């Protein structure tokens, strides 16, 4: 039953490989929990068994650490989905998880770094004459300039980057510098296979052009040929771990701590909203299915407005 449900999630729901791996891990732990309670099939499960599993997740045991609310909520969501699937497929005559709610999570505001810190980070990619430094600068410019998830960035192919008809891809940076930056764009593949088109700003375009002209050909010569945009030192596709290491190395050189790829995504959204962008536009750029997900960023900007008001308005302080 478990394999059928995971296949359903992969084929019909289009969940990513990372999400599927998490669901598989959570559900295997659930099956072990049921077997320990002497339950052989999903049809034998009662609501109390599901509630006991949730409690076990939060408390932990000798083999598993206690899970935070967000991880426990994910596991409960996987269990609820499994029982709904079993009911629909006729494997079980009831859904014991229907009324079991995942633990409430504390709302955490996204962390963003300042524009000045972003500039320090981008300037810390290494000497400009190094092919890998040119790749690193292009990667970080794309992450910050498009709000791409790290998996979306490393999944890019060269053909996913398009330029206006009057300019060839790979044109030397600096040429046609008055061009409207909105004429360039990148095609990102998001969660569930959803595709979105995001404008490519002038800085990101120039960094990509420098990489494509002066670095990628020499790096690609070490490999067997791949359409991937970002390559590792051996000429193959850059992995998520490799991209993470690029960011961490640049952050260390820039004297910044705690910087993650997702923090650049948060910074992209926060800086757009600070600049007056509409929240629904930011939603489309981030690839969020619901505007509610994006609205958490407006809380960041409201806090920033309060700080400015408190510091600048003569009647703000008691």
From TrEMBL:
<comment type="similarity">
    <text>Belongs to the 'phage' integrase family. XerD subfamily.</text>
</comment>
<feature type="active site">
    <location>
        <position position="191"/>
    </location>
</feature>
<dbReference type="InterPro" id="IPR044068">
    <property type="entry name" value="CB"/>
</dbReference>
<keyword id="KW-0132">Cell division</keyword>
<keyword id="KW-0229">DNA integration</keyword>
<comment type="function">
    <text>Site-specific tyrosine recombinase, which acts by catalyzing the cutting and rejoining of the recombining DNA molecules. The XerC-XerD complex is essential to convert dimers of the bacterial chromosome into monomers to permit their segregation at cell division. It also contributes to the segregational stability of plasmids.</text>
</comment>
<dbReference type="InterPro" id="IPR011010">
    <property type="entry name" value="DNA_brk_join_enz"/>
</dbReference>
<dbReference type="GO" id="GO:0009037">
    <property type="term" value="F:tyrosine-based site-specific recombinase activity"/>
</dbReference>
<keyword id="KW-0238">DNA-binding</keyword>
<keyword id="KW-0131">Cell cycle</keyword>
<keyword id="KW-0233">DNA recombination</keyword>
<dbReference type="InterPro" id="IPR002104">
    <property type="entry name" value="Integrase_catalytic"/>
</dbReference>
<dbReference type="GO" id="GO:0051301">
    <property type="term" value="P:cell division"/>
</dbReference>
<keyword id="KW-0159">Chromosome partition</keyword>
<dbReference type="InterPro" id="IPR023009">
    <property type="entry name" value="Tyrosine_recombinase_XerC/XerD"/>
</dbReference>
<feature type="region of interest" description="Disordered">
    <location>
        <begin position="161"/>
        <end position="191"/>
    </location>
</feature>
<dbReference type="GO" id="GO:0005737">
    <property type="term" value="C:cytoplasm"/>
</dbReference>
<feature type="domain" description="Tyr recombinase">
    <location>
        <begin position="108"/>
        <end position="310"/>
    </location>
</feature>
<dbReference type="Pfam" id="PF02899">
    <property type="entry name" value="Phage_int_SAM_1"/>
</dbReference>
<dbReference type="GO" id="GO:0006313">
    <property type="term" value="P:DNA transposition"/>
</dbReference>
<feature type="domain" description="Core-binding (CB)">
    <location>
        <begin position="1"/>
        <end position="87"/>
    </location>
</feature>
<dbReference type="InterPro" id="IPR010998">
    <property type="entry name" value="Integrase_recombinase_N"/>
</dbReference>
<dbReference type="GO" id="GO:0003677">
    <property type="term" value="F:DNA binding"/>
</dbReference>
<dbReference type="InterPro" id="IPR011932">
    <property type="entry name" value="Recomb_XerD"/>
</dbReference>
<feature type="active site">
    <location>
        <position position="288"/>
    </location>
</feature>
<protein>
    <recommendedName>
        <fullName>Tyrosine recombinase XerD</fullName>
    </recommendedName>
</protein>
<keyword id="KW-0963">Cytoplasm</keyword>
<dbReference type="InterPro" id="IPR013762">
    <property type="entry name" value="Integrase-like_cat_sf"/>
</dbReference>
<dbReference type="Pfam" id="PF00589">
    <property type="entry name" value="Phage_integrase"/>
</dbReference>
<dbReference type="InterPro" id="IPR050090">
    <property type="entry name" value="Tyrosine_recombinase_XerCD"/>
</dbReference>
<feature type="active site">
    <location>
        <position position="265"/>
    </location>
</feature>
<comment type="subunit">
    <text>Forms a cyclic heterotetrameric complex composed of two molecules of XerC and two molecules of XerD.</text>
</comment>
<feature type="active site" description="O-(3'-phospho-DNA)-tyrosine intermediate">
    <location>
        <position position="297"/>
    </location>
</feature>
<feature type="active site">
    <location>
        <position position="149"/>
    </location>
</feature>
<feature type="active site">
    <location>
        <position position="262"/>
    </location>
</feature>
<dbReference type="GO" id="GO:0007059">
    <property type="term" value="P:chromosome segregation"/>
</dbReference>
<dbReference type="InterPro" id="IPR004107">
    <property type="entry name" value="Integrase_SAM-like_N"/>
</dbReference>
